[in-house]
Amino acid sequence: MSDSLKPIDLVEGLHRSDEDDRDRLRQLCLGPIGRLVDRVIADHRPDVERRLVVHRTLHWVEMYLRSRSPASFEDLDTRAFLAMILASAYRMLTPPGLDGPRQMVPERSEPLQCPYGYQVWRSCLPCERGGGWIGVDLSSGEDLWTIVIDVTAHGDAASITGNGLSQLWQARPIVELRAAGRPPREVLSVMSRELEPVLPDAAFVEAALGRFTATGEAWVAGAGPWRALFRRAGQGRVDLRCIGGHLLGCSWGNDHEQESWSLRADDELTIASDGLYGQPDRDGHRLGDRIVERIARRLIPGRAMHAAVLEALADVIGDRGRHDDITVLSVLRRGEVGT
User: Fold this and answer.
1) Strands 143-151 and 133-140
2) pLDDT tens digits for 101-118?
3) Residue 266: helix, strand or coil by DSSP?
4) Domains of the chain
């Protein structure tokens, strides 16, 4: 980076997708990133191909910078800017190890309170160094946006990819699509194209993206196999819908199915990764085979559907471990709502 080009100017160029600034970033980072990758490979990952790791790390660095406000870099010189980049890359390349077997994470006693009367519950239940992740955006105009991610890999590949997805979720092109109220299926297609050059060879990404408006309209689009559970206020019946589509990061297509609901006061919608439905009980029967029945009988008055889903899961697991990462998100619309 020349003395005349400040870090804030470079980041602003990246936000505009300026190719010259992408080249400048690569020239600045290639040597330091390469040395960092060499150290990480020697210490942690001797079986990976260096060139691919360097290439993907540079892409993730750009995504990280595009997820940050240019103002964050206003007072940085080149040396401090590079140190910040290397710190981000190191965290991505060396995710934390396990501290023993992962236990079931209890649901939050209080949901996240969102604008326009929505409440959101979130539970990520990793089975190993997992790639499950949940994003919630409360700032896109009058809409609530949610995303549930499940990386189709385990170990380092899943953890690294999950870390990068949080940066993609905050990248300016994706934020602008949400702020413009674009359909979730369109936002997933753009995310898919961004992900394709950086995904590890053994990893693809399943995702369910939801948009919830101030008037109670809800849309959910899927990448990979997803199911949505819907409950009308006060009812003991649960409806199940399947939502599919191409995995994110796949070059063979960008078709993503999309379902819609009109939510009234206290209606609930739950989205969960396939690990929930595939969890076997002691007899080998999957939770998904009878999940509607298992949840419905736990919907006692005053209990949120999110709690009923996790209780059904806990009963199936018993004292055994989970066979896959499980990520669950539930949205409830509260307040006085017009018909």
Assistant:
1) antiparallel
2) 333 444 445 788 887 789
3) coil
4) 7-93 (1.10.1740), 112-333 (3.60.40.10)
